[in-house]
């Protein structure tokens, strides 16, 4: 039995455009193409697509996915590894759910007379988060910067990584506090914090004005980044993005 590209898109939730792209890069060729140019897929192709989507969910890049699928590795063994990682991810998400629940409870109990958010034990806000860049978009848009960042990350020791995560945590909390206080994005205090953020980014790669503004937009547009920010305070991603845009125009333009 064979399914059309429209059928596969409907079943999998993957757009026809993405399926055509997977064909073009040799990741998921159709079983056959009709005289009218329409792609058709068979059961083996659906199983391959499932593996692609599983690895995408686990943050694996398209190039690495193709290498795995073309390696001839035992399919069941590969699926077992995916299953193991998915169970680990399930446990992480359960931890995140507890983190968010605890935050909700603390915020509901800690509101002052002005109904302002109060942040208690900020380190608890981030239990369960994974601070790794899993975006193919960054790699595709800024390949040189991505490679520079990758080398910098790989050179970090475990202690360096832990210290960096603590710094990121503290900085996100400060931005949230500024937002709750009602400070505008161009407030000098906010811009001083953005300067610290920019210098932190420069430890890994050095963005120009356009790239730094693009990074801010990525915090908003990428669902994972946006969700992480909004779990701290709703609208935080947009707030930091706006502050980064002000900084880029004033300091990097």
Automatic annotation (TrEMBL):
Q: Which UniProt keywords apply?
A: Activator, DNA-binding, Transcription, Transcription regulation
Q: Which residues form the HTH merR-type domain?
A: 2-71
UniProt-listed Pfam families: MerR_1, TipAS
- Taxonomically, the superkingdom here is Bacteria
- Entry's Gene Ontology molecular function annotations: DNA binding; DNA-binding transcription factor activity
Q: Name the PANTHER family on file.
A: HTH-TYPE TRANSCRIPTIONAL ACTIVATOR MTA, REDOX-CYCLING DRUG-SENSING TRANSCRIPTIONAL ACTIVATOR SOXR
Q: What is this protein called?
A: MerR family transcriptional regulator
Q: Which organism is it from?
A: Streptomyces caatingaensis
Organism placement in taxonomy = Bacteria, Bacillati, Actinomycetota, Actinomycetes, Kitasatosporales
